[in-house]
Amino acid sequence: MELNRDIALRLLHQYVKNEKMIFHCLASEAVLRGLARKLGHDEEKWGMAGLLHDLDVEITNADATVHGTQTEILLKDYNLDPEILDAIRMHNEFSSGKERSAEFQHALAAGETITGLIFATTYVYPDKKLVSVKPKSVVKRMKEKMFAASVSRETILECEKIGIPIDEFAAISIAAMMPIADQIGL
């Protein structure tokens, strides 16, 4: 069966119940689409990886030793590009047992991770609205290790491995999330 966005959204809501995690997946989809546009790749393909990358997060209880590996099983009945499954598997290097090496892998890992920093940055603004967040604020927060401490700065900086400096990466990410800000509570 072909997997389109409508089916992917249904699957996301079937397997992920936490609203904030759904917001994260929608934000990741938007960021990956923005990165695909910037780098000249297929927006649908990259967006699908962003949308589904955490499909198994609740099934695995976010256990880093297995998170990312179960999504392939959940999607076995769908005709899905193997590169999407690979990027999803590799967004968590720990469970894959390998280091990321492909552009798509780095893009998904960095793109989904920066969303956490953007959400956290938005929440400290008085209006808690994404429209108030500037790329320089996100980059400044990157340097504050205690701010959103669980967000891996090292993973975000993989944006440089795909040729995008952190300032531009933050700008692309915020701009990509802006059209869906209301859908993701920002």
CATH topology: Hypothetical protein af1432
Number of contiguous helices: 10
Give unreliable regions as ranges.
Answer: none
Q: CATH class, please?
A: Mainly Alpha
Helix proportion: 55-70%
Cα gyration radius (Å)? 15 Å
Termini Cα gap: 34 Å
Gross morphology is globular
How many domains make up the 3D coordinates? 1
How many strands in all? 0
Taken as a percent bin, the fraction of beta residues is: under 5%
Q: What is the SS-derived class?
A: mainly alpha
Short key terms for the protein model shown above:
mainly alpha, Hypothetical protein af1432, 10 helices
Give the topology, please.
Elements: H1 5-15, H2 19-39, H3 43-52, H4 71-74, H5 82-90, H6 93-96, H7 103-123, H8 135-142, H9 153-156, H10 166-177
Helix pairs in contact: 1-3, 2-3, 2-7, 2-10, 3-5, 5-7, 8-10
Description:
With 186 residues, the protein is mostly helical. The protein has one domain (5-180): Hypothetical protein af1432, CATH 1.10.3210. 56% of the residues lie in helices and 0% in strands. The chain is built from 10 helices and no strands. The chain has helices at residues 5-15, 19-39, 43-52, 71-74, 82-90, 93-96, 103-123, 135-142, 153-156, 166-177. Helix 8 packs across helix 10 (166-177). The chain is globular. The mean pLDDT is 96.
Summarize the structure.
By secondary structure, this protein is an all-alpha fold. It contains ten helices and no strands. The chain has one domain (5-180): Hypothetical protein af1432 (Orthogonal Bundle), CATH 1.10.3210.
